[in-house]
Amino acid sequence: MAKNTYLPAPDHGAKTGVLAYLLTTAAVLLLMMVAGLLMRLEQAQMISIGANGFYQLMTVHGAGMVGIAGIAGAAIMWHFLNQYAALSVRVLVGNLALFVIGVAMVLGSVFVGNFHGAWTFLFPLPGNSLGLWSREAAAWFMGGMLVIGTGFLLLQLDIARAIIAGYGGFARALGWPQLFGRDDGQAPPPTVVASTMVTIVNLIALVVGASILAMMLVNLYHPEFAIDPLLAKAMIYFFGHVFINATIYMAVIAVYEILPRYTRRPWKSNKVFLASWTCSTLMVMFIFPHHLLMDFGFPKWMLVMGHVIGYLNTVPILAVTGYGALMIVFRSGIRWDMGSRLLFLSMFGWAAGAMPAFIDGTIRVNYVMHNTLWVPGHFHTYLLLGLVSMVFGFMYYLGKPARQARDPFIDRAAFWAYLVGSLGFVLAFLYAGKESVARRYAEHLPQWVPYDRVASYFAVLIIAATLVFVARFIGHLAHAGGHHTRATVPFGAVVA
Amino acid sequence: MLQQIVWALSLALMMFVGFGWAYALLKSGRREEDYTPLQKRAYRIRTRLFWLLVALFGTPMVLTLIDLPYDAVRPAIGAGSVQEIRATGYMWRWELSADRIEARRPVEFRVTSGDVNHGFGIYDPDMKIVAQVQAMPGITNTLRHTFDREGVYKIMCLEYCGLAHHNMVAEFTVGTRS
Q1: Is B162 on the interface with A (CB under 8 A)?
Q2: Structure letter (DSSP) for residue B74
Q3: Which class is A16-480 in CATH?
Q4: In chain B, where are the structural domains located?
Q5: Cα–Cα distance between A315 and B33 in angstroms, integer?
Q6: Most buried of A100, B42, B60, B116, CB within 10 angstroms?
Q7: Assembly ipTM
Q8: A165-201: pLDDT as tens digits
Q9: What is the CATH topology of the domain spanning B83-175?
Q10: Residue A404: strand, helix, or coil
């Protein structure tokens, strides 16, 4: 049996590579938030950038946010996993370098080549623009995505190597001996279990993503190399779904590692925890047909599988990870600061966002809500309130100058502004989805505009709060690399 | 209307989650030093929560599988013979083989695309989606629907297809037999 005693873990400062990831995250996240705001303002008819400009921003916003979510998640995973397995700093830095090169290619394709085929690059749109962008612009976009994907693939391969070397294989690192045999309390820590799950699913997803990108690049120059659009779509959504979900599974490691420091309670890998991560490994990979529920030509059994797994997938999120966060905080005497607040909020965001998500994965619901604003409504809930809160919680944790340091008033105000702004923003999306407002429209019907205006005001609030978070992280950068006690333990508790 | 139910249900579930978080937050102040009894109690509650989730989510998961919109499994709905309409999407227009449909008689839309992916979304006279299917080159998807309400319906593109995606609109009228 796993023991309940909390063993104080040292607070390691972040390596320069991790800090570079986080600074990149802060910069790109802010820029992409501004791109998102401009899109909502355009739909709200409060600015006029035109359809071309809107779809350029939409393409950059989608690709940029997915990519930066990966960078942010990887920073958290690498930082903590490096304390259990020997990872390569060179590969870490190499991935960031490839990311920057890939981003430059994508930006060039969009803002110089006028590519605006969306981040989902659904075949055959990139090669069929009716003359609005060139073949080369499409190739630069897909090439850029391929470069970014290759960087992540190398990073995951290095993580796979380190896990196998340290734990003797993926099965052991997922805790299968303890899950299927006697729980001797020696299961790998949550960070290792989560990193293993992420590595398994991401390696497969990145290879599938790279394959379809390579196929489409060949098709671009040799159209006789025919591609089945339905197969292409399935491959793109398999890659896209797994990759973006993996970012949350990476970032949640911050919660597993940091909340125990605040509460001085252990977050152990017991049988239920191990079972839930093994189930999530499978479910994250097999849920992807829920993106194709309106493709009636897709095998029906796979569509039904997507529907069913959509429901099952909520159980580990709610009953294991979400509930685990409540358990560890309940009567813990935790003192709330920016780090602990944001991490606790992040678990709410993930759990709450799963609700409209699984409902949309119901085939009959999808029939009237697919590709409405309901879809960005649910994924912004678990990305904005979930993933981004995890990332900023991690930044505040790292940057905390001393154990008992107090947060300035402006930071506390920014937290509430972020919470209110995010809730208002996502509810405006969800309500508009209920009203059948189509997603990815540069221009909205007059009756849809009020929702866009409400969303725009809340988006401003989010950006204002994010500016405070980012400024504080940059201001505390010097502390982020130091090995000093960060988490605020309860009053009166003995600190080791 | 389904959208209304979905909205209310989602809000209720999100609030339920929110109450859980608020409760833990409110009870986080006073520390209980021995975690073991608290943990045992929490695990018992979690077992109940698990079965509650199974009942709460499992029932609609199964029941909503009974009537699927897919051609092969959907029973014939409405009275009379099936009206067939061929619909093809192009950047950025719809081509329909007919623009008048008889109310309360089943319709089969045979939907495809002449270039890139499109989404064939049918909006009722109140601009609410009543049905949709993807329009994909090389594949013909059959969408079966029976319109009970008369009026002018719009078809709007629900899959991003380039610059004038938002302007890719067509209309048809549902009425009585002329």
Answers
A1: yes
A2: P
A3: mainly alpha
A4: 2-63, 83-175
A5: 29
A6: B116
A7: 0.95
A8: 999 999 999 999 999 999 898 999 999 999 999 999 9
A9: Immunoglobulin-like (2.60.40)
A10: coil
